[in-house]
Write a structure and sequence with these properties.
Layout lengths: L2 H12 L4 H20 L12 H13 L4 H17 L3 H4 L25 H14 L1 H13 L3 H5 L5 H9 L4 E4 L9 E4 L3 H17 L10 H14 L15
Antiparallel strand pairs: 1-2
Helix pairs in contact: 1-2, 1-4, 6-7, 7-10, 9-10
C-alpha cells in the first residue's frame, strides 16, 4: 500500500462507526486506491484527489455491474474520508452528487428474492461435498435468517443456541457479526430442523478446533464465504442474502 492508501485507511478509521462499518469503509478506500494505481495516477496525498478521480472510479464500478445502492454506500464512505481530511469542497462537489454520478433512484429494499427450495437443496448438496463447515453455516443462515457475517461467526453461539432450544425458547439471540454490532433476535420457525442443524454444526466445529469456516481470521473467512458461495451458485438475485428471505 502506498502513501495515499495508508493515509486514506487512517482517515477511514477516524471517521468512526461500528467495527463492520469501519472495516467496510477501509475496503472501499483501498479499492479506490487500487483503481488510481491501475490507471497510473501517481498521487501521494488525499489533498491531491480531484473530482475526476472519483468520477472515474464510480464509472468503472458501474461498468462492472455494481448496484446503485452499493455505490451510494461507497460514495458515502469516500465523502466521509474526504470530509475528515478537510476536503469538503470535493466531497460536496456538484459533479459528485448521487444524481450527477447516475446513482439516484436506487431503492433501499434491494433486488434480492427468496431462494427457491430446489436451488437451495442443490447449493447445499454441492457445499456438503466441497466443505461440510461451509454447508453447516449456509444451513444455519437459511433456517435462522442469518446475514453472511452472522453465519460465518455463528460458531461462537452454537452452544448458547443449543441450550436455548433445549429450554424450548421460541427465539434465538444473534450476537456476533450483526449489523452495527447490535444483538438481535431471530424467531425459530422449525425447531426440529434448527436443532438438527446445530448438532451437525457443533460436531463439525469440534473436529475443526472450534471453527466452521477453517480460516485464521474473520477477513479471510468472509472472503472464503463469498468466493465459495458464488462458485456453488449463490450469485445475482440468489446471493447468500437470499437465504434470509426463504
Amino acid at each position: 500500500m502506498g502513501k495515499l492508501g495508508g493515509e486514506m485507511k487512517a482517515l477511514a478509521k477516524h471517521c468512526g462507526g461500528s467495527h463492520k462499518t469501519v472495516n467496510d469503509r477501509i475496503h472501499i478506500v483501498q479499492r479506490f486506491d487500487h483503481h488510481l494505481r491501475a490507471l497510473n495516477v501517481h498521487i501521494q496525498r488525499v489533498a491531491q484527489i480531484k473530482v475526476r478521480h472519483i468520477e472515474s472510479y464510480i464509472h468503472e464500478r458501474l461498468a462492472q455491474g455494481i448496484g446503485k445502492r452499493t455505490l451510494q454506500n461507497e460514495m458515502a464512505s469516500l465523502r466521509a474520508v474526504l470530509q475528515q481530511a478537510g476536503r469538503k469542497q470535493v466531497a460536496e462537489h456538484e459533479w459528485l452528487t448521487n444524481k450527477s454520478l447516475g446513482l439516484a433512484g436506487a431503492s433501499r429494499s434491494g433486488t434480492r428474492q427468496a431462494i427457491t427450495p430446489e436451488h437451495y437443496h442443490h447449493v447445499l448438496e454441492t457445499a456438503r461435498m466441497k466443505d461440510p463447515g461451509l454447508a453447516a453455516a449456509l444451513e444455519l443462515a437459511r433456517l435462522m435468517g442469518l446475514r453472511s457475517q452472522e453465519a460465518v461467526q455463528s460458531v461462537q453461539s452454537l452452544k448458547t443456541w443449543k441450550q436455548a432450544i433445549e429450554r424450548s425458547d421460541t427465539r434465538l439471540t444473534v450476537v456476533f457479526g450483526t449489523k452495527g454490532g447490535r444483538p438481535r433476535e431471530t424467531v425459530i420457525l422449525d425447531t426440529i430442523a434448527v436443532r438438527k442443524a446445530l448438532d451437525n454444526a457443533l460436531a463439525i466445529a469440534e473436529s475443526r478446533h472450534g471453527r466452521l469456516i477453517d480460516k485464521p481470521d474473520l477477513k479471510s473467512a468472509m472472503d472464503y464465504w463469498h468466493n465459495q458461495a458464488a462458485r456453488i451458485g449463490l450469485t445475482g438475485a440468489y446471493s447468500p442474502h437470499s437465504l434470509r428471505y426463504a
